[in-house]
Amino acid sequence: MVNMADYIKRVRSPRLTLIIILLFLITIFPIFTTNYYVLSILISANVFAVFAASWDMLAGVTGQFSFGQALFFGVAAYMSGALNLFLGIPPLLTIPLGGAFGVVVGFLVGLPSLRLKGRFFTITSLIFPGILSVLIVEYPDLLGGETGFYGLAPISSEIWITYYGSVILMLLSVFILTRIATSNIGLIFRSIRDDEDAAEATGINTTKYKFLSFAISGFFAGIAGGFQAHLLMFVGPYVFNIFYSLQAMTIAALGGIGTIIGAVGGSYLMSILNELLRDVVSFRVIITAIILLLIFRFLPRGILRTITKQCKVPLGMWRGLKKLRSKEDGYNP
Amino acid sequence: MDTILEVKNLNKRFGGIVAVDNFNLKVGRGEIIGLVGPNGAGKTTFFNLLTGFLKPDSGDVFLKGIKTTKLKPHKIANLGMARTFQIVKPFKGMLAVENVAVACMSDRVRTANKNGDDVISKALESLRRVQIIPPAENMFKLASELSHGYSKRLDIARALALEPEILLLDEPFGGLGLKETPIMQSVIKRLHKDGITVIIIEHKLRELGKLVERLVVMNFGEKIAEGTPREISNNQRVCEAYLGKEGGSLFA
Amino acid sequence: MIEEIVISSLILGGLYSLLSIGFSLISGVARIMNFAHGAFYLITAYLIYTLLPLGLGIAIIISLVLAIFLGLLIYRVLIGPLREKEVRVALVTIALALIVQETIKFIYGPQIISIPILISGTTSIWGVIVTNQKLLALVVAIATVIFLWILIRRTKRGKAIQAVAQNMDVARLVGINIRSTLMTSMAISILLAGIAAVLFAPTWSVSPTEWTILFRAFPVIILGGMGSIKGSFAAAFILATVEKVVEFTWGGGYIVEIATFALMITVIFLRPQGLFGKSIR
Fold first, then answer.
1. Can you give the pTM of this predicted structure?
2. Is the pLDDT assigned to residue B239 strictly greater than 80?
3. Mind telling me how many Å the CA of B167 is from chain A's nearest CA?
4. What are the angstrom distances between the C-alpha of C171 and each of A307, C26, C148, C159?
């Protein structure tokens, strides 16, 4: 038995207080430590949170399990880098432009998804980044080849400014993505995820919305890529490595596929895990792999979802539900 | 009578199997028709052809005079022909009310809704019409948590929310028990009274007989008989198709 | 030059056909994507490498058996329980492949190893000098596929496999033991990967990242259509020929990959079900 008013309250951000506390912590953090190393870990965590959230929107919300998220990331990274290095455009602009390139790539990747279902699409999405990587390695004159190109402008010379930059990036991105996921569009996306044919039968132009999802996902993966490029001040074919795609997936899965916000928690968790085992650098891959394996084998809904399910708190998805104003709604007149 | 749906010489084969064989049908606005036939007769395939999930090899479908033969399913749905599925296809990860609300996102409902009736009340209205609410809790149930009877009606609620002019129901009574069957009966009767044209595929001939004015019988893809339930039950060919040459009464 | 192209295409096609059929088989029957398929190629190769002191022949046999055993275990524990949840299985198997990669890297180091050839010497065909190993590989590969074809078509088990691939529910209804059919398919799939390793790994390089050789077979699968042995077989040789033609005409490296990719994209848009596949939409 669900009390209506109770439910409505829960659909509104139940974790508002928690979020405010977190925000506060995040903001004052640099005061306590200007330790470069710690801050750079957090910065990275923020960037990957955005990256993972972008995949979550595409896969978790819309059900398009693309294995090539690194493609959006990589293309944007290269484009941002190129715009900066060759045209002198500052990072503040190249990053959103990187996002724009991500959108374009999103459309391109979205195209085969229309012709292919399920398995075939997954396989194809896997190969896409690989091809680009090969192209770049073989065309050293154009884009730096295997060594990539260096000398990109940093986000800022001060680490704490970069830190705040990453925080803003993360908060803004997650906010927008969440707004989309809880909107009418998000509702449509989820219907496509749950049953594409039924969605069609319900009058939804699934093609249009799938493209939209790819575009959105591409954009946010793109700005993450652009930010990363300027963070490391270097771009190379490594950005297309399947490992990046897998990281995005693992992080999203850790937090809960389809929740968007889970990507943030997942990213921080991953960072902590990586740091605990930082002594043996090569463990990063195997740790990610083991986590990925365990989660998808045993806990596919991710940690966040499993916990909230235990507490029976519905992660209220659709904002439209808030329109249930009073007890009168739904009761037999 | 105003013809809302017209099917002309529809044909569909799958390899060597003829699923729909030179099918012709005229449906008048406001009619409630039953489509029956033994298993494998091609009934669901027919629905798929009508709603754009399959393309016919030849022949045409006209909805309100518009040729819908090669259109995509969502376009046909937006023109006013909605359907349910033989095996329910709910949006499993979404709440019941969300399931229905998706229909309100369609172009059809969006354009008809210029005065901004909010989506939620439309969705609730649809859920009321199929008697899923009251009790109000049901709207918050995940579609995957609903019992079979509710599930079947949720499918209908979702199709209803499109505000269709013609509704195709694929075995709405399938798997329903003693308690749920009369509810479904009253839901469908009500829909018909509201002016919606209904075509029902069903095996439970008794239930169907109570609802429909006209029956169309299919076997091996072709129409073998058409008429009132009484006429059909006396039709020799139909009895043979169902019961073999010994006959018997279909609507006993 | 044509002779060279033909011969090298055939040999490459042999490798591709083993890999793609292995992947296609379990994919069609269990409706999953086993991205760790290439890992079994890798495992077999490294096992042979490790067991060499026992003699090549024995090493090969034990390695194949161990690989199959390991694979079935993995299937039981990690993949089987997920039923047909393709995405989960895909991710689990990719993770698995990475784990295998890293474990091997940890034990053996990242360098390239080589496993010995089965038969030495060279032969001259149409004026082209080919190593006997490669010839043997081609012959055995084709023989294996033919043998598999007969197995699937003529034997009871094979027919069970076909049935399950076509419609699992109906197969269950007519009394086919689904579990054992799935296991058999998995075993055959791994065996194919293992045989590919035995035959072709000696002529190739083997390193911990070699499981990605599977990805080279993906265009074959797209081209041939999933779940179709005939399709994969034909597509394997077609693709191999395309690759070799491009390689010999314009030089190797990236242009080959681009050509392959272009071909794949074309097939995707013109005929998404591949040359022989049934419509997968």
1. 0.88
2. no
3. 12
4. 39, 16, 21, 10
